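Predict the 3D structure for this chain.
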Amino acid sequence: FFWFWFVMRAPAYIAPLTQLVKTSGHTSSYQSRYRGHHIVAQRSLNDPTAVVSEGAHPDEVQEPRSDEDVEVGSTPIPDQDNGVESGGTNDIRAESESTSQSVGLKLVDELAASSGNRGKGKKSRAQSGVIRAADARERLQLLVSKHGKGKALKKGLRTEASKEFTELIASCGRSGLYKLGLDAYEEAVRHIGMDAELGAAAFRAALSAKYFSTVKKIYESASQHGIRFPDNIYSIAVGGLVLCGRLEEGLAMKSKVESRGGKLELFGYNAIIEHHASKGDLRKVLDTLAEVEAVGHKVSHHTESLVLRAVFRTGLGLPGCLDWIEEHGFEVSRAALQAVLEESLSLNDRKGAAEVLELMRKHRKWARVRTYNAFIEHFAASSDIEGAMKTFKALAVANIVPTAQSYFLLALAAVNSGKRLGEVEDMFFQGASEGVQNTYFSYNTRAILAARAGEDVTPIYQEMYDEGFAPDDISFHHAFESMSLRPEKDMVTHALNLLSMMDRMGLIGSRRSMNALLKVLCRAGAAEQAVELYQSMVTKGVEEETMAPDFETYELALLACGNGKRMDLAVGVFRELEQRNIQPTVALYSTLVMGFGNSRDFESALGVWKEMKEKGLRANRTAYRRMVDACLKHPQGIAHACTTLEEMTAMGFSMDNEYYDTLLKGYGRARELEKVVARFRNINRPGPEVGEVTFGAVLSACNNEESLPTADEAIDRMVSSGKSPRSFAPI
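Done. Predicted structure below.
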């Protein structure tokens, strides 16, 4: 028994010790510190577009059993304001950082109390059938040599050949090597022809890679050969299409399945419900739920949790969800409470989240690693590293082993906040030395930390690809977002290297990842590269809807041109939008105004401003600020800046101290003392803090005897505020 145990278990203990030796040399390079750690483990099972393991029911993959902990799928973190604008001002006024952190840290204490110290320590399990890229290529060459050029057909070995090709495609799919899997499919069709097994395996790979044009080709080829896939394959296809925003295509495929007497499995219906829930469309959710019951499917806990998300998003919130559970007989399952908790956190409703945690304690649905990860993700989205760190450390107190995704989300919080990066890096590598296995998330953790440190992450993703965990669109999105937080222009080279790698992999980037790349280009003022990327998105977006540009894309392209002082390119992009019958918004007009302001082209900025008003668009606070900034950068613009500020206040928008100073300086230069006095006396106490620039502007305007009372008042207020009048030249 001992020798049997030793043979089976020894590698699990030896590998961490080996890695500890490999990672003991502390260097500044993330790549060198982690090279050689090649423990293959299971990729997240909860990714709705991930390949379903052979023999697994799709709905079982979507809904983990309540007694198990699996990593949350690669859920995108909400976009952050990365400050890509140059010359603009951030208009978002968040709550006090210290207050927010204190509330957040108190919430972590509530979370710890909901764990019941009953967490199950569970490391990622190794997945069978995972293959390295080099091994996959070698196997493909051997299969082509063995069965190619009609050999399999001549020897009567077609069935055997089909099985071997199908197994290779499936292994590539499980490893994230979708492009290699589809290459194997093409070779198989060329040499032995298509059959149902080959088509189904390729169908899965194409869906997981989001190669929807390939999905259509496989589907059409199967139809031409009279091949009909099992209903579960079509269910996966419908679910993948719907969850990637291609609802109409998914519903069309569903109709075809039903027209042939087939039945969509629960996984497909859940995807449709999730899509409608994300839009807060409760009516369509309930219609789909009724259809689920009508075809004889049993409503699962996961399905109920999706319905509750829709209820929450209709504006009913937590009280509405609780009423719904009681009125419709839903079970208070962990899935239901987890869904409501995540919805509360997404709205930054920490009070609601605390109530959900209390319900979890009441119903003895103890918090598991997924619950903790939801909190870490929430803090990461808020750039709150303190809250994320406390939550992560609370895992150990609750006797819950952090997953690779836990480390990834913690790293994301550090990257977004720019704080405690070194500490998080050390924690991650310590976790690696203690046996946290090398997974999709651990590679992405290394990548975002390296990107935030200004390093080239291409070697990490190449290693990831070679080891059978191919980076996907979400991987590149997070890498680009991390790069966009750095001001160095050399990040452009790193970002474009990643884009080239995506092309080599055959990976079609989504709008979200391409917009993140535009942020990098925008911050560096790389106008030509930004416009080239934008035009590529326009072209590819015709076939791949998920890559078609949106208004964020347009704004980022214009910002990049403005920051790079290439307003000729900006005007070209702007006019091209009009030619495509896309009506520019106030945000796009004001972005163009800001670009002309950066180039000190006051006349052009003024012309764009007038055109915006002629189109009947009403300026918002950001637009006014950008116009004022553009005016102030030109010697002849001060008068128009004052006019714009007056209009801004008349529209009910408040002014910051700097704009009071601007207004007073403008009136002072124009020797309009009455307006200076009126404005100065309207600065109520304790209103905006009055700075030295404001006092200087008032005193500069007081240049005759009649204005001396105003000067005396200014001096009195200046002294009472603790400022010395000796520093002012006008006195």
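The first helix runs from residue 2 to 22.
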